[in-house]
């Protein structure tokens, strides 16, 4: 096994914030990578641990028997190594996979529930995320996936395994100096509030936003009790622009009401995160992805895309998840912003990452 030094481990997470500018633009990314590595060493960063939904789920849902919310079949993974569908809801790799590659460990970050997970993988970081999950635990129940609460239970289990592997003292250092990523929230609206009547009968949209912020606060406080000291929270995307939403609304334009919900939620999230940072003495970063996604959708040619209205798979207007099985794909994957009617292509994640790095470096 390759010898793992603390300096190597220290590189891991801040590079994660760049997600993968390495691929977007090699020259530019090389400079960003070097800056991030310097910062990682300066702040003694050890590893990356991820919570959230399908945006950061590398295959945890594969092992859930009672959910249809899976991506372990083609055309998901069509541009992954050997066209292998792993459970990632895109055509290739996720952000965290490129972090591992940039560090020279391997080219993927594994799901915590991956049956092939090895003990050494625990050192580099894992993802507890589950496609279909949200801040609201009820959201996960809608599709029988792993709630954020359950993801935190898996993290507790992870700490026990890590302690047995490296000793309690080293385990404590790894967790304390790791950066935790929390990327979720869209499902709380799209598969919960706007579809299932349980929450919409109880809350107005503004009340539900505040309810979600309280859920997030509870989870972050639990993380803090478990040793989390560095946290990056990814903001809401303009989900009113998803091809599926526009199709359901029978419109070629984005649903501005939904986008306003995303914007106002981001405002509340950022304010709460700032408050928690002060009271918990936790270093935090708000990763604002709304603007870069909106800019790309409005100016696709500027970012190298030719198709911003539909996904690459099937008709690109309604299919995602199991409805994608057996469907054909577009000819040039790199020119599409969306892979299915909900999730982005690998290339779109590159764009998001390249922009995210700037704010991460500034924040740190």
UniProtKB/TrEMBL annotation:
It comes from the Eukaryota. Residues 1-27 form the signal peptide. The keyword Transcription regulation does not apply. GO terms for molecular function: hydrolase activity, acting on ester bonds. Keywords: Signal. InterPro entries: GDSL, GDSL_lipolytic_enzyme, SGNH_hydro_sf, SGNH_plant_lipase-like. Gene3D superfamilies: SGNH hydrolase (3.40.50.1110). Belongs to the 'GDSL' lipolytic enzyme family. This is SGNH hydrolase-type esterase domain-containing protein.
């Amino acid at each position: 096994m390759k010898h793992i030094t603390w300096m190597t481990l220290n590189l891991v997470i801040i590079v994660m914030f760049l997600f993968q500018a390495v691929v977007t633009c090699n020259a530019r990314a090389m400079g960003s990578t070097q800056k991030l590595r310097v910062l990682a060493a300066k702040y003694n960063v050890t590893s990356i641990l991820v919570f959230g939904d399908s945006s950061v789920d590398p295959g945890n849902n594969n092992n859930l028997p009672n959910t249809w919310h899976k991506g372990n079949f083609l055309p998901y993974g069509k541009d992954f190594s050997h066209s292998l569908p792993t459970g990632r809801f895109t055509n290739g790799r996720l952000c965290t996979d490129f972090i591992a590659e940039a560090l020279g460990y391997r080219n993927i970050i594994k799901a915590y529930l991956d049956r092939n997970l090895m003990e050494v993988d625990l050192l580099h970081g894992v993802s507890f995320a589950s496609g279909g999950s949200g801040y609201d635990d009820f959201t996960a129940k809608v599709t029988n996936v792993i709630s954020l609460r359950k993801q935190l239970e898996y993290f507790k289990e992870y700490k026990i395994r890590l302690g047995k592997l490296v000793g309690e003292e080293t385990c404590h250092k790894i967790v304390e100096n790791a950066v935790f990523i929390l990327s979720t929230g869209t499902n709380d609206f799209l598969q919960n509030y706007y579809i299932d009547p349980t929450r919409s009968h109880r809350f107005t949209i503004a009340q539900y936003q505040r309810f979600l912020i309280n859920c997030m606060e509870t989870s972050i406080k639990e993380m803090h009790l478990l040793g989390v000291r560095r946290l990056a929270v990814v903001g809401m995307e303009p989900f009113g622009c998803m091809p599926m939403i526009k199709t359901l609304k029978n419109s070629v334009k984005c649903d501005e009401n939904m986008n306003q919900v995303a914007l106002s939620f981001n405002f509340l999230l950022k304010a709460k995160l700032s408050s928690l940072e002060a009271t918990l003495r936790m270093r935090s970063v708000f990763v604002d992805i709304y603007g870069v996604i909106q800019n790309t959708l409005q100016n696709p040619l500027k970012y190298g895309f030719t198709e911003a209205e539909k996904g690459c798979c099937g008709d690109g207007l309604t299919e995602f998840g199991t409805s994608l099985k057996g469907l054909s794909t577009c000819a040039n994957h790199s020119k599409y912003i969306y892979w299915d009617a909900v999730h982005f292509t690998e290339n779109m994640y590159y764009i998001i990452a390249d922009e995210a790095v700037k704010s991460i470096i500034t924040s740190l």
